[in-house]
Structures are given as C-alpha cells and as structure tokens.
Design goal:
The complex is a heterodimer of chains A (about 230) and B (about 375). In chain A, the strands form two sheets. A six-stranded mixed beta sheet of chain A has the order 6-7-8-3-9-10. In chain A, strands 2-1-4-5 form a four-stranded antiparallel beta sheet. With about 230 residues, chain A is α/β, with parallel strands linked by helices. In chain A, about 45% of the residues are buried. In chain A, strand 1 and strand 2 form a beta hairpin. Chain B is elongated, with a radius of gyration of 29 Å. Helices cover about 50% and strands about 20% of the residues of chain B. The chains are: A alpha/beta (about 230), B alpha+beta (about 375). The interface between A and B is medium-sized, with 29 and 26 residues. The structure holds adenosine-5'-triphosphate and magnesium ion.
Amino acid sequence: MNDHDDILIRCHELTKHYRRGDRTVTPLQALDLLVSRGEYLALMGPSGSGKTTLLNLVAGIDSPSEGKLEVCGQDLTQLSRGRLARWRAHHVGYIFQLYHLVPVLTAFENVELPLLLDDLSRRERRERVESTLALVGLDDRMHHFPRELSGGQEQRVAIARALVGSPELLVADEPTGDLDREAADAVLGLLRSLSREYGKTIVMVTHDPRAAQAADRILHLEKGRLLEQEGA
Amino acid sequence: MLPLGYAIRNLFRDPTRLLQAVLGSALVVLMVMVAAAINGGMKDVLSASGSPDNVLLLGAGSEESVLRSEIAERSAGIAETSLAGLSVVAGIRAVSPEVHQMAFLSVSKDDRRQAFVRGVTPRALLVHRETVVQQGRFPESGEIMAGRLAWKRLGFPVDTFTPGARVFFEDIPVNVSGVFAAPGTVMESEIWMPLGDLRSLSLRENLSCVVLRLGEGAFEDVDLFTKQRLDLELSALRESDYFAGLSVFYAPVRGMAWMTALLIATGAVLGGLNTLYAAFAPRIREIAALQAIGFGRGPIMFSFVQESTLACLCGTLLAALVAIWCVDGIAVSFSIGSFVLRVTPQVAVTGLVTGLMLGILGAIPPGLRCLLPPLPSALRSAG
Ligand SMILES: Nc1ncnc2c1ncn2[C@@H]1O[C@H](COP(=O)(O)OP(=O)(O)OP(=O)(O)O)[C@@H](O)[C@H]1O
Ligand SMILES: [Mg+2]
C-alpha cells in the first residue's frame, strides 16, 4: 500500500492568525501533523491552546493563514467558501460539545439534514437515517424533538447526523464535555466502535484523560504547538 | 435545500415575533392598497369624466381651467348654426352653454361650503349623456339639482339634497328639484342650476364654456371653426383631453397618497426589521451548525425567505380582508370631485407584490445576522 494513500490529514507548518482589534492572535503556530486513515486521535491541552482552531481547520470550517493543509486528498487552502461547504458535506462529520441540533426538527429530521444535500430518494434517505439512528441506539426516539431527549441522547443524535453521510473523517470538539459519566461512556463507546468496526478516522478534542485513553494516539497542544506524542 | 417544514416551524418558534411580522406587514400592505385605490380612483374618475365625443369651447388662453374661462354668450348660438356634424336628438342640436364656478352653499346660515356649481340649460343632458335624473326632475328657476355624491363632497348629511328640501345658495334660499347620477364622473359631486339663475346671481354676462357633442363631424371641424372665428376668441378642446390635463394637474395629489403610504411603510419596515434582527440571536449557532454540515448560504437564505414570505403573505391576506371589508366603498373627495375607493384587481395585485417584496426584505436581517459572522465565531456564539 502506498504510504501517501494512508495519510488522511496532512498539516505542514500550519499557522492561524486572528486579528482582534489591532492585536494579532496566533492560536496555531507552524504546526506539523499527520493523521493516518482509520486513526483515532485525541487532542488535549489547556483552554485557549488552539484545539478548536485546529479542529476547525481540519474540518474545513476555517481556513489557515499560512502553511499546507491536505485532508482526504484535497488541498483545503485552495477551496472557495462554497466549494469548502460542499467538501465538508461529503468528507467530514462534525460533532459539537453542545450538540447543535436544530430544535424545531425531530431526531429523524436532524439526521436527515446532510442527506438533503444529495440527490437521494425519500426512501433511500429514510433507510439511511433509520439505520444510522439504530446504530447509535436511538431507533425508538426517531420522532422526538431535541427538547424531549436527554443530553446523552441528543449527542448520539448529533453523532448520527455526523455519520449519516458516510464521511471518512469525524471530528468531535469535547463531545462528552457536557455529559454525565454514564452518557459520556455511551458516547465514547460509540466513537470507539465507529473507529474499530467502521474504520472511521476520528479527531477528538477532550479535556478528560479518561476519554482520551480510548484513542489510538493522544496529542497535547500548548500555545498553538504540539508537545509530545503518546500511545500507539 | 432545507425542507419547507423547517421554515414553517421556525415561524411558530416565537409567536410574538410572528404576530409582529403579520400585523406589521398587514399595515404596510393595507397602506399601499389604500394609496393604490386612491390613485386608481382619482385617475378613473377623471378619465371617465371626459368623453372623446364631446368638445369644449373655452376662452383662448384658459384651456387649463374651465373655472377661469370666459367666452361671449353668442358663441353658443354661432357654434350651433355654423357647425355641421353635431349630434342631433329629436331635432335639437347637442350644444350646451354652461357656466362653471365655485359658490357657497349652506344648509343653515353659518355652515357654508364651497361647491362646484354648473349653470346649465336642459340641453346639458344632450351632451352629458351619462347623466340621468334619478330623483325628482331637472331644475327650473329658483331650484337646484345635486349630483348624488355632492353631499359627500360638501360634507353635508346624506339626506341634504332630497327633492323638496331647501338649501341656501350664497345665502339665497333655493329648492332642491332632484338628484342626478353620472356614474364614475366628477359631475356626480356637482350642483346644477339653471344657467339664467347662476348668471344673474353671480352678475355674469358671459359663459364659461360651450360643450358640443359630435355626431358625424370631427373634432377638426370644430377646431377649424375656432380658428376662423378669431373674433370669438375660442379654443376647442376634446373633453377627454381636458380631463387628461386635469389628471396630470392632480398627479402631485396622488403622489402625496403614495408618499404617505411610503412613509408609514418605511416606519413599519424599519421597526419590524429591528425586532427581526434582535430576535435572531438564538439562531446564529444553529445556522452555523447547518453550514458546518455543508449547507451553503444560498439554501439557508432561501429558507429565511420562505419563512418571512409566509408571514408576510398572512399579513397580506389580513390586509386584503380589511381592505375589502372596510376600505372598499369609502367615498373620497378632492377639489373637483369625489370617487369611491375600490379594491380592483390592480389594487389587489399591488398589495400582493408589496407583500412578496416585504417577505424578501424580511429575510435580509436574519440573513445578515446569521450569515455574516465567520463560521468559527458563529459556532462558538452563545445560543
Ligand atoms: N475567531 C477568533 N477570533 C479571535 N480570536 C480567536 C478566534 N478563535 C479563537 N481565538 C483565540 O485563539 C486561541 C485559541 O482558541 P481555541 O478555541 O482554539 O482554544 P481551545 O484550545 O479550543 O480552548 P478551549 O479548551 O477553551 O475550547 C484563544 O486565545 C482564542 O481566544
Ligand atoms: Mg475549544
């Protein structure tokens, strides 16, 4: 197997600046990172160290100021805003700490959203939504609205929504940050099985060392730089 | 594409805001419909008032206003005998000598209103064919006849001009002989009285105009006549052209109606946009999440347009109902006449277009609010 094909995320001297008034903040500083296809990576680091910034860049939510960034074989620095949106739809599923479900849509409709971007028949969409909700263990909550679900259930709906379009890459920003231990364990178990059984590449930001233990590799960020590497 | 259900359910997310949007757009649409009805009504009454078959003989130089025109009394007789091709009814040529002037009318001593008074002979009915005496009869000396909307134009009670009633013309008592209709024309707001009476009461030797009705003849014949008889100092004008000129003269009045509607609408829109803008803060993060999923700005904007258009169309429907129930049929007066506000198809279409425009306009504030901030900041905004 070609080594090139095995790398899903390739960051080279990745730098991000933000202007804040007349000051420039640099949450990411010349960061080098390679993530293999199928790898489960945990990102840790103090608040403000640039974890979310890195995740947003990798997920095509934000664009780098300098450096190279290639994800799923696509040079993300070259894409316009609209093309980047289309790229996200097909290659990345984003899981947020606060779920970000659409409150006026049911669990089913929330999960269906990414599929509306493709030309699928209503039946195809229904089958995929139902099987994805079954995968996260919520086939009995399909027609509930987010306010009728627990936090853990909401997060599992959000995972189903990230998953339903079969993206190669899942990114999660503190997915268990707002959950109690039991719900957190369910979400972590789900992520691990997505990695092990479905071969998904996962980049997860977490503050919780226990959550990080589930990953193949743990990276520590501090002031926009990578510190050390652990795990296998 | 986001489902229509998303737009519909978003509407009911904040019932106060929905109510504001519906009532606000209803107000704007109603104002625009009223302005359109005033505009249309005034134009229609002026264009209906002038017949293309009638020719006015006015004093040369007074073509713009019959009230200012003065012509010699003999002009009527000379025109009648010189002109061939006039309409003839029962052997009588359709030539109507007339005096038009503003005069005070009152019901009681200190309640004087300025009326448009036309001094006529019975021949007036030969030229003004749309005129029908509805109640009573044509006036004789010491009498007047009122158009059926004159009470409205003058601000008198509706039964002021019932035949047999007594009113005061420049403080002189006169009897009402009848009421006439001339559907859709300004004449319905006028007071008619015998030509001789009006001339002696106003100490006038001359006429304001002579109205001719053409039969076989053409306007050009009349025009040529005025140019040949320069001694009479006449100018010939098609009655329809005369009223087209008046319509242009009153364009600023119609403009005022539009301006008023526009001002009220602008106020309502600005107020509405402001509440809309404020109400969208909780949705910034949700919209950011939709963008993170891969929805572009276009489909999200389209959903906002659907949402606000639905609200504005409800407002439009409300405005249309109010217009039909409360505005349709209201008589409006201006200086030379009255007309009735009607919800015509044009007025309805104007209202609908306004409602749709408001809908699209209403999508702009949430659009700006949710789509302008960079995606990473929108995702971390408080929701
Ligand atoms: N859009 C932005 N504009 C300006 N500064 C920003 C922006 N986004 C992030 N920053 C700054 O960049 C730095 C890193 O932010 P980031 O959100 O990546 O940190 P983090 O590691 O995710 O922190 P936390 O653990 O608190 O989520 C912070 O100092 C933050 O204030
Ligand atoms: Mg963060």
